[in-house]
Structure formats: structure tokens, C-alpha cells
Automatic annotation (TrEMBL):
Similarity comment: Belongs to the pseudomonas-type ThrB family.
Gene3D superfamilies in UniProt: 3.90.1200.10, Phosphorylase Kinase, domain 1
InterPro entries given in the database record: Aminoglycoside_PTrfase, Homoserine_kinase_II, Kinase-like_dom_sf, Pseudomonas-type_ThrB
GO molecular function: ATP binding; homoserine kinase activity
Protein name, entry field: Homoserine kinase
Coiled-coil zones: none
All residue ranges annotated as the Aminoglycoside phosphotransferase domain in the record: 27-252
GO biological process: threonine biosynthetic process
Lineage: Bacteria, Pseudomonadati, Pseudomonadota, Gammaproteobacteria, Oceanospirillales
Substrates-to-products reaction catalysed: L-homoserine + ATP = O-phospho-L-homoserine + ADP + H(+)
Keywords: Amino-acid biosynthesis, ATP-binding, Kinase, Nucleotide-binding, Threonine biosynthesis, Transferase
Xref: PANTHER family: AMINOGLYCOSIDE PHOSPHOTRANSFERASE DOMAIN-CONTAINING PROTEIN, AMINOGLYCOSIDE PHOSPHOTRANSFERASE DOMAIN-CONTAINING PROTEIN-RELATED
Record-listed E.C. numbers: 2.7.1.39
């Protein structure tokens, strides 16, 4: 999606007043994204993006918003929340909606429709910079879409799948349970670095977006998630040369250990499984909204099939 929360001009101006970013000129809903409501907002002082958090509780937001501020301050190319006049990074959008919201500066550029080797190298290098910077991030968060979630989601989805997919899912869960994640280097991961979570302005990365799945996890799993979407030629065909380019970019900043290199194929399977399950969950539990986007789970199933020997 998506616009799940429809807003009006007066409530938007009232929200903008707490940021001192001038008078509202125009605004429009953004159709991209699945989780939150986003609007492009133009005032007489600049271009901004309003995000209304649809699933994240206010108590959880400081982890994510402080993280993006920390990364921005450390020189990472990323979107970050503006401070309100009282110094806070978010507020309830309006009494009527009762949902927390943030305002960010609109970054230039577009989401890439197709990736080149050069894009894979650039995103790999930026991901490694994020991993390195986060070694000093003081806060912690568990991955809510880790092993327990995976087992629960698989249980809920199983009966809705055709028999062949049920078998694939069962086999993959068995395979994944045998992987030793504990011995691999961990840190803060982005967790969802798909193409639509980065903007390119010409050949330049203007920024990574949407850190709302960030958490502590295995770093090479984050590489596998990123590769899942950046290293494809079409919706379902994985390009191993693009993976090499991404790894080259990544290793220009942070070297991978032998154990991480060995673990990568299993992590690619874990990444495809994670998004197969989350997309299935979204499709089977659709949410109401004015503009909504649902992503096709079968693409992730096919990437999982492709990643298996
Ligand atoms: N700071 C920004 N500058 C420019 N565009 C932005 C910015 N933040 C968000 N956008 C635009 O809004 C879109 C959706 O944003 P985002 O990915 O954060 O939404 P989401 O619903 O959380 O998405 P996802 O499905 O990836 O979880 C982006 O793809 C981008 O086009
Ligand atoms: N990036 C996710 C959606 C948001 O988490 C996907 O493509 O399924």
C-alpha cells in the first residue's frame, strides 16, 4: 500500500504546525509500501513525507526513529524523522485517528524498476556501512519475524496452500531448523531492504528507507534479504552475477567470514521463506484502505525453489 488512513487538510496543517515547516500547499497519498500510510506533503518551505504508523505502537517507535537519526548522523544515506518543535520525533497524528505519525524530509530520486550490477554494488556497500555503524547503536530489539513467528505463520497458512506448496513449506521448515544461526556474526539488520526501500537519483543512491523491520539478527541474513530483491532479472529469476556484485560492494566495507560465506545459501532460502510467509499472511488477512498494495507470495515461493539445490 498504501493509504489506510485518509486525512484532511486541516488536521494535516495542525500536525505540520508542530514542526514549523510552513503552510501546506498540497499533499497526496503514496501507493507504494505495504505496512504504513504515507503521503507526500508540499509546504511553502519544502517537500516532506508524512508516515502514519498503522501497525507499530507508539512505545516501539523510539527504537526505530532513534536508529535512523543515529544512522543519518553517522553519514548513512537514509531517510530520518524531523524533530518537532518540542524536540520529539513523532506524535499522535490527530485525536480522530489516534495513530502515531512522523514527518521526514523527502529524499530525491525514484525506486528502481530494474537493477544493474552497479546498483547491486552500491546497495551492498551501503548495507555494510549500516552494519558497521550499528556496532555502536546502544538499543536492542528481537526479530519478531524469527523462528517462532515462522512456525506460527506456517501453521496458519498451511491449509490454504496447494498440496505441493504444503510439502515445500514443511521441507523448508525442517531444513531451516537444522541451521546454526548462533555462531554467525550478529548486529542490527535493516530486515526489509527491498528495491522499494531505497531511492536512486540517477546513478546515486539518495537513501535507504523504512527501517521498521530493523532488529538484532544475523548480518548475513540481511544480505540475503537484500539480494532476494536486488539480484533478480525478472520477478522470479535470481541472477548470481548480481549477487557477486552485491557481495563485492558489501566486502568493500566489511569482509565476510568463511562461516558467513558458507551460510549464505541457507540464508537466501530463509529470506525467501520469510517473505513467502509474510506475503501469504497479508493476502489471507487483507486490510481496508483507500489505496492498497499486496505483493504476490508466489514470487517468493519461486525464489525459494530457485535457491534450493
Ligand atoms: N523520506 C522519503 N523520501 C522520499 N520518498 C519516501 C520517503 N519515505 C517514504 N517515501 C516513499 O514512500 C514509499 C513507501 O514508504 P515505506 O517503504 O516507508 O512504506 P511502508 O508501508 O512502510 O512500506 P513497506 O512495504 O516497504 O514496509 C517509498 O517507496 C517511497 O516512494
Ligand atoms: N518488502 C516486503 C513488504 C514489506 O515488508 C515484501 O516485498 O514482501
Amino acid at each position: 500500500m498504501s493509504v489506510y488512513t485518509t486525512i484532511d487538510r486541516d488536521e494535516l496543517q495542525a500536525f505540520l504546525d508542530s514542526y514549523q515547516v510552513g503552510q501546506l500547499v498540497r499533499y497526496r497519498g503514496i501507493s507504494a509500501g505495504v505496512v504504513n500510510t504515507n503521503y507526500f506533503v508540499t509546504t511553502d518551505q519544502g517537500e516532506f513525507v508524512l508516515t502514519i504508523f498503522e501497525q507499530t505502537e507508539a512505545e516501539e517507535l523510539p527504537y526505530f526513529l532513534n536508529l535512523t537519526n543515529f544512522l543519518h548522523a553517522g553519514g548513512l544515506r537514509c531517510g530520518w524523522p524531523l524533530k518537532r518543535a518540542d524536540g520529539s520525533l513523532f506524535a499522535c497524528f490527530s485525536e480522530k485517528h489516534g495513530k502515531p505519525a512522523q514527518l521526514a524530509v523527502r529524499l530525491p530520486g525514484e525506486v528502481l524498476e530494474k537493477t544493474l550490477f552497479s546498483h547491486c554494488r552500491i546497495i551492498g556497500a551501503e548495507l555494510a556501512k549500516m552494519h558497521l555503524l550499528c556496532a555502536d547503536y546502544p538499543d536492542h530489539r528481537d526479530n519478531e519475524m524469527g523462528h517462532s513467528w515462522r512456525m506460527q505463520a506456517a501453521g496458519e497458512m498451511m491449509s490454504a496452500l496447494p498440496e505441493k506448496d504444503q510439502q515445500l513449506l514443511k521441507d523448508e521448515l525442517v531444513f531451516q531448523q537444522a541451521i546454526d544461526w548462533q555462531s554467525l556474526p550478529r548486529g542490527v539488520v535493516h530486515g526489509d531492504l527491498f528495491r522499494d526501500n531505497a531511492l536512486f537519483d540517477g546513478d546515486e543512491l539518495s537513501g535507504m528507507l523504512d527501517f521498521f523491520f530493523a532488529c538484532d539478527d544475523v548480518l548475513v541474513f540481511d544480505i540475503a534479504i537484500t539480494a532476494l530483491d536486488w539480484c533478480r532479472d525478472s520477478l522470479t529469476s535470481f541472477n548470481r552475477d548480481k549477487l557477486e556484485a552485491l557481495l563485492e560492494g558489501y566486502q568493500s566495507q566489511r569482509s565476510l567470514s568463511e562461516a558467513e560465506k558458507q551460510a549464505l545459501p541457507a540464508m537466501q532460502r530463509a529470506a525467501a521463506l520469510r517473505f513467502w510467509l509474510s506475503r501469504l499472511t497479508d493476502v489471507l488477512n487483507p486490510r481496508d484502505g483507500e489505496l492498497t498494495e499486496l505483493k504476490d507470495p508466489t514470487q517468493m515461493r519461486d525464489l525459494l525453489l530457485d535457491a534450493r539445490p
